[in-house]
């Protein structure tokens, strides 16, 4: 590197320091180095992705203008993350990240990032997001592909609201806390917010899994000075954290609590997803839990059959783009929607198998094929755990006797039959053994229980009204 370049760089740094002030300069620019200048392009480097993205989104134009004041031939500044690799191949500027002074959003800068392999449409968003320490976003998880149904209407509306809000809008609910069982669309909604926010509005959305928050974000913040920390927080308009239940460890949780409070107090939006409501996050302390519950808490229910069918249809339509020959008859879709009930992941799995099969064999998708392929995804409805006490209570009430009568040694007909029915239900609805059931029915012998079970089984086969009565009792117990 020539002395002149070096001198120029010193003068540019002097200018920068004068413009942004000592504090900001030492937070962000002391570790910035000049890698070289060729044909109007200045190549600078910093040691971390975090610094790179920060400078890129906040100071790119300023850095460029300081250079241009010094040397009016400078057209562009390339900022890269310094690493052994980039150092050794510094002659190949393609690896560098380019800052171009395209206007966009409130910072006036679009840190346009060009990485050879990525698809042009999504690269700027996802790469910028990743550079901030964000978790990777799946291109398919957007609002466009999210199907709205009864179980997720509210969660969807709230997420949409967050995604389209602008900087100047008042925050309506904070945090937005979405919880549901696995595979019901939490990640899909959260990533939709990240895509929509980063693409469309003037706000910066950072999507982090709890894991990324623990190992990436927190450590990035820790390595910065206190000032830089505050500034970093100020730069995020919407913080989205997925799978909060995985956030472990006292100090990480303290860091999370600090971040949560700073952002909410500063009027920034926080969005959380978890597999349980805030009150059930046992490892978090009370204040965090109440803060988490203090915004809007929305539960997403299981996907109804109609919703499952719609999801399947939209998946098939999406698959069509790449696999035009993939046809799935309506009867097959209806069959999958009816039988694969657990969650969105299994629906996807079922379709993938049909797709794989049709690609590999070239044969049409039939109902028969579907039945074979998705067999193991069909889980029998797990019966609700039924307690023997409940059986005794409900049977006693039904036959208008007391629970004590069922446990007693009385042998009058009006208690013998109800007792037998109760024992039969205990055997069929619980996993208790015959001796255990005998004990719970006033210390009877297991052969007595076996006799009762056989007797009722026999009667049910011949007596439809008893069969119906027992079905009704079962339904009551399993509701
Ligand atoms: P969670 O994060 O709640 O475990 P995901 O968001 O990962 O669930 O969803 C699992 C799968 O089901 C994903 O492929 C997702 O796209 C799909 N899915 C769930 N709900 C919907 C929905 N309402 N519309 C479209 N796809 C959905
Ligand atoms: Mg998830």
Description:
This protein has a 5-stranded parallel sheet, with helices on both faces. It has helices at 3-20, 22-28, 49-58, 60-70, 84-88, 123-131, 153-164, 186-200, 210-222, 226-234, 250-265, 286-293, 305-322, 330-339, 344-361, 367-373, 388-399, 403-407, 413-429, 434-440, 446-462, 464-478, and strands at 33-38, 41-46, 76-81, 97-99, 176-179, 205-209, 238-242, 269-274, 296-299. Strand 1 and strand 2 (41-46) form a beta hairpin. The model is unreliable at 84-123 (pLDDT under 50). By secondary structure, it is α/β, with parallel strands linked by helices. The protein is elongated, with a radius of gyration of 32 Å. It has 22 helices and 9 strands. Helix 13 packs across helix 14 and helix 17 (388-399) runs antiparallel to helix 19.
Tag the structure with descriptive keywords.
single chain, 479 residues, alpha/beta, five-stranded parallel sheet, four-stranded mixed sheet, 22 helices, 9 strands, 54% helix, elongated, binds adenosine-5'-diphosphate, binds magnesium ion
Strand content: 5-15%
What profile does the largest beta sheet have?
A: 5 strands, parallel
Secondary structure tally: strands: 9
**Percent in helix:** 40-55%
Bound molecules: adenosine-5'-diphosphate, magnesium ion
Oligomeric state of the chains in view: single chain
Count of DSSP-assigned helices = 22
Give me the secondary-structure category.
Answer: alpha/beta
The overall pLDDT average reads: 81
Low-pLDDT stretches are 84-123
Radius of gyration: 32 Å
> Quick one: overall form?
elongated
